[in-house]
Design a protein that fits this description.
Blueprint (H helix, E strand, L loop, with lengths): L1 E5 L6 H13 L6 E5 L1 H10 L5 H9 L8 H7 L5 H12 L4 H6 L3 E8 L5 E5 L5 H10 L9 E3 L2 E5 L8 H6 L4 E5 L14 H7 L4 H8 L1 H17 L3 E4 L14 H25 L2
Parallel strand pairs: 1-2, 1-7, 2-3, 7-8
Antiparallel strand pairs: 3-4, 3-6, 5-6
C-alpha cells in the first residue's frame, strides 16, 4: 500500500503544504496518510482534496489575535484559540470540505500523545467532522502552551512528543511504499529541551509524559535514523528541505509563510517525477 508520512513543526508545515499541493495538482494518490501535529492539521486537506487551503487560511488569519498569540494564551490557556481554529475557520470562515473528505477512500491518521502512558496513539479520522477535528487539535496541541485535549475521558497532547516521524508504525500497518516529508534538513540533530524544569513542574501529574518529553530528542533522532535506513532499503522516499526553512513556529508574517510554502512547492516539483516512479 502507498502511504505518506507528514512530520509536524508548526509553521514549518508550510513547506509540507507546498509539496502536498503540488502532489494533489498532479493527481498523486495514496492509500493512507499519517500526520503529526501540523502534519495532521494541514495534511487533512489532502483527503478533502483542497489544494491551496492551508496556505490561504494561514496567511489570511496569521495576524489575528486568536492565532498563535501570547494574548490568547493568557486569556484561555491555548496559544491558538481552539474555537477559532477548529470551529470558526473550518466550518464558517474557510470551509473544510467534510463531504469530500468522508467520501474519499484515502485513510487519514493522526498521532497524539497519551498523557497518562507517555506513549503515542495512532488514530484514524474517517469523517472530518467536529469529533475528528478534536483528534487533529490534540495532535497539534503543543506542550506548555496548550491545554490537554480530553477525548472520551482521556487526555492528549501533541503527537510529536512521542512520535515525530511515525514511519515504523505505518509500515507495521501494511504501508510498504512510503513518501516521508520532513520539515527539518537531513543534517538536523535535535537537542534536549531547554524547558525541562518548567515541564517537570507544569506536567508533574503526568510523569510518563514528562519522561517522554525529556527524552524527545533521543526519540526523534532514532526515528530519523530509521527513516534513512529504510530509504536505503527502498521502503520509503524522503523529501526534506535542502536548507533550514528559517521560520518561527508561530510566524505571523504572511510573506514568510508564503516564502516557506514556495520552498515546498519547488521541492514538490523537483521530486514529482521521481515520486511518480517510486509509487508505480
Amino acid at each position: 500500500m502507498k502511504g505518506m508520512i507528514l512530520e509536524g513543526g508548526a509553521m514549518r508545515g508550510m513547506f509540507t503544504c507546498g509539496i502536498t499541493d503540488v502532489f494533489m495538482e498532479n493527481g498523486i494518490v495514496f492509500d493512507g496518510i499519517i500526520g503529526v501535529s501540523a502534519g495532521a492539521t494541514f495534511g487533512c486537506n489532502y483527503k478533502s482534496k483542497q489544494p491551496g487551503r492551508a496556505i490561504r487560511y494561514n496567511t489570511k488569519f496569521s495576524r489575528d489575535s486568536h492565532y498563535g498569540t501570547f494574548r490568547n494564551l493568557m486569556r484561555n490557556g491555548d496559544l491558538y484559540d481552539a474555537k477559532f481554529c477548529y470551529e470558526d475557520i473550518p466550518f464558517k470562515l474557510d470551509l473544510f470540505d467534510v463531504k469530500t473528505y468522508a467520501e474519499n477512500p484515502l485513510k487519514f491518521y493522526v498521532v497524539v500523545s497519551d498523557l497518562e502512558t507517555g506513549k503515542p496513539i495512532v488514530h484514524e479520522i474517517p469523517k472530518g467532522d467536529r469529533d475528528d477535528l478534536l483528534w487533529m487539535r490534540a495532535s497539534a496541541s503543543l506542550p506548555l502552551v496548550s491545554t490537554p485535549v480530553v477525548i472520551a475521558g482521556k487526555r492528549y497532547l501533541d503527537g510529536g512528543i512521542t512520535s515525530s516521524i511515525p514511519l515504523k508504525q505505518f509500515m507495521e500497518m501494511g504501508y510498504d511504499r512510503n513518501i516521508v516529508i520532513l520539515t527539518r534538513t537531513r543534517e538536523y540533530v535535535k537537542k534536549p529541551s531547554s524547558f525541562a524544569i518548567l515541564m517537570k513542574f507544569i506536567l508533574r501529574k503526568y510523569p510518563n509524559l514528562v519522561k517522554a518529553m525529556l527524552n524527545r530528542h533521543i526519540m526523534y533522532d532514532e526515528e530519523k535514523q530509521f527513516v534513512f535506513e529504510q530509504e536505503k532499503l527502498g521502503n520509503c522516499y524522503v523529501i526534506a528541505p535542502e536548507v533550514d526553512v528559517g521560520i518561527s513556529r508561530t510566524e505571523h508574517n504572511p510573506n514568510e509563510l508564503r516564502r516557506v510554502y514556495e520552498m515546498g512547492r519547488q521541492a514538490g516539483i523537483k521530486h514529482l517525477e521521481a515520486v511518480k516512479e517510486y509509487l508505480k
